[in-house]
Amino acid sequence: MGAQVAGEIRSLATCARLCGLLSLYEVTRMYYFIEPMTEDDIPEVQQIESQSFTTPWSANTYRREIRNQASCRYLVVRSSPTPPPARHGPAPQGRRPGLLSQIAAALFPSANGSSHSCPIIGYGGLWLTVNDAHVTAIAVDPLHRGRGVGELLLNGLIDAAYELQAQLLTLEVRVSNSVAQRLYVKYGFQPTGTRPRYYTDNGEDALIMWTESIGTPEYRQRVSQLRRQLYARLQRQTAGRSALRV
Ligand SMILES: CC(C)(COP(=O)(O)OP(=O)(O)OC[C@H]1O[C@@H](n2cnc3c(N)ncnc32)[C@H](O)[C@@H]1OP(=O)(O)O)[C@@H](O)C(=O)NCCC(=O)NCCS
């Protein structure tokens, strides 16, 4: 996808910890941008995973998923205090940039350099089963939640589903996870049933959710409208300077 998807926000961020006693906080501007997950990203992803889920995947599982380009897509969101580095060369495997990338490229300027110095603050993935894209993971660093990053990731995954020519999106979510469910409902996922005692840590049921066909004009229109709102939200969060020249 190689999306230079960025939002500039003001956030209260921990910038230093002195003598293990004192945390200093600083108001900073942050750009958020999406990239395909690489094997080098796995340790950082696992850190967020361990703060978000109780049954983490092994590094080997991530490697296997990332390498399975025929039916899997894994993405990371990075944050940067400066405009995100431009990605050079063609999109991975000659893929065309998705709608999200095209909109973002028009909205946000890029800087040169490597993105790998920018910390990962969220990740997500999906895999294709026949014609359906199954969202396997989506998680945001607890320090960056509530700022549109999860929604940005879900949009990246929806683009990935289009790229894989999926017709429907599905996922399982804990019945108690009302925050995630609200995000999914916003993007047209509806509960269709439960998987009793699906989660092995506490025996909790999973709610199964499905979208309608993502190829219909109605669904595309819905996503397109939500994207406009998301960008407006990210823009409102910005300090509103050069990063948001349109
Ligand atoms: C679920 C998760 C990915 C959402 O990411 P986020 O960056 O915090 O969410 P966003 O700021 O992008 O918010 C997007 C939408 O999520 C929902 N949402 C986010 N925070 C919420 C909260 N505190 N209460 C209720 N709904 C909330 C809302 O629908 C929101 O849209 P809105 O602002 O228009 O109401 C994040 O909370 C997370 O990582 N949770 C732990 C891992 C997890 O449960 N993953 C899902 C597994 S199925």
Question: Would you give an account of this structure?
Answer:
The chain has 246 residues and is α+β, with helices and mostly antiparallel strands. The chain has a single domain, classed as Gcn5-related N-acetyltransferase (GNAT) (Aminopeptidase, 3-Layer(aba) Sandwich). 30% of the residues lie in helices and 29% in strands. The protein has helices at 42-52, 59-67, 99-107, 149-163, 178-186, 217-236, and strands at 8-18, 22-36, 72-80, 120-129, 132-140, 168-174, 190-195, 206-210. An eight-stranded mixed sheet has the order 1-2-3-4-5-6-8-7. β5 (132-140), α4 and β6 form a beta-alpha-beta unit. The radius of gyration is 18 Å and the shape is globular. Bound molecules: coenzyme A. Residues 52, 138-140, 145-151, 173, 177, 179-180, 182-183, 186 line the site of coenzyme A.
